[in-house]
Amino acid sequence: MKAMVLNQYGEEAAFTLTEVVKPQVTAGHVLVQVAASSVNTVDTMIRTMGDALPLSPALPAVLGMDFAGTVVEVGEGVTDFAVGDEVYGCAGGLADLPGALAEFMLADARLIARKPSNLSMREAAALPLVGITAYEGLQRAGIGAGQQVLVHGGSGGVGHVAVQLAKHFGARVYSTGGGDAQLELISRLGAVPINYKTEQVADYVTTHTEGRGFDVVFDSVGGANMANSFEAAALNGHVASTVAMVDLDLSVAHFKGLSLHVVFMLIPMLHNHKREDHQQILNALTTIVEAGALVPVLDELGFELSQAGLAHARLQSGQAMGKVVIDV
């Protein structure tokens, strides 16, 4: 089969279109003919950082975590899927798990689910990693009807899903963005847009919550922005963060009695820990999508398998609006 293979890591690392051995199906797994794969920030981090990340696969490597495609073979013990099923998931491209930038992919059946019937393969491939991350973070933060929820970075990959899910769960949703296009997308998704470049945290907390703060803050920006999340949260509020690698004074969190939920959705893949949880979340996302409450936003530019490097560059440029998708 054809695959985009990475033979070295680094800033200048390039993918090479290569003929590789087609995987053989194994117990507990299915073989999927890949139709599309989306690019996530962690994919670009693996390509450029390599061994500096403990989750990078050994070279030569086939990257690509997210995918949508069709089951072509079913391994022993798999009862939930049959040949011909259209599925999606986040199931490879790190550690010892082969990735989706190939014509076929071996996937653990616990990490995949039935594709939403009202999404194209391209749209479905855009959803797994960001969808699981947003869903897990909101659930752990105790999302509920009537709450006021702030999503930092609501036009981004994880953020635009978190906005829609929070609205689906009955919350009043607000979201930060930094430009007209971002703010317009946030508004279109059903949230009140906040321009973080022109509005201070204290100002929008006063404007939208009368100074009380937000019940849940979903921070898809992370890093130093977590201090803004603590400031924006209500007393005894919840902060969910997808990027918690930061040195930070927790005094504000202490005096507000905040709960911090760090979401690292790769744990089931890396440690073979509760992988069935991801299937359950994907099944829930399928139901929500088919009900019309969640639509993945795709970048205007599309890429073919041989253009994987260009797709990575597009995401890294910061100019993409929505998920970058590769047609396989």
From TrEMBL:
Do the record's keywords include Oxidoreductase?
yes
Alphabetically sorted, this entry's keywords are:
Oxidoreductase
Q: What Pfam families does its record include? A: ADH_N, ADH_zinc_N_2
**Entry-linked PROSITE patterns:** QOR_ZETA_CRYSTAL
Top-level lineage group: Bacteria
Molecular function in Gene Ontology? oxidoreductase activity; zinc ion binding
Q: What InterPro entries does the entry give?
A: ADH-like_N, ER, GroES-like_sf, NAD(P)-bd_dom_sf, Quin_OxRdtase/zeta-crystal_CS, YIM1/Zinc_Alcohol_DH_Fams
| Name of this protein | Quinone oxidoreductase
**Lineage in the entry?**
Bacteria, Pseudomonadati, Pseudomonadota, Gammaproteobacteria, Alteromonadales
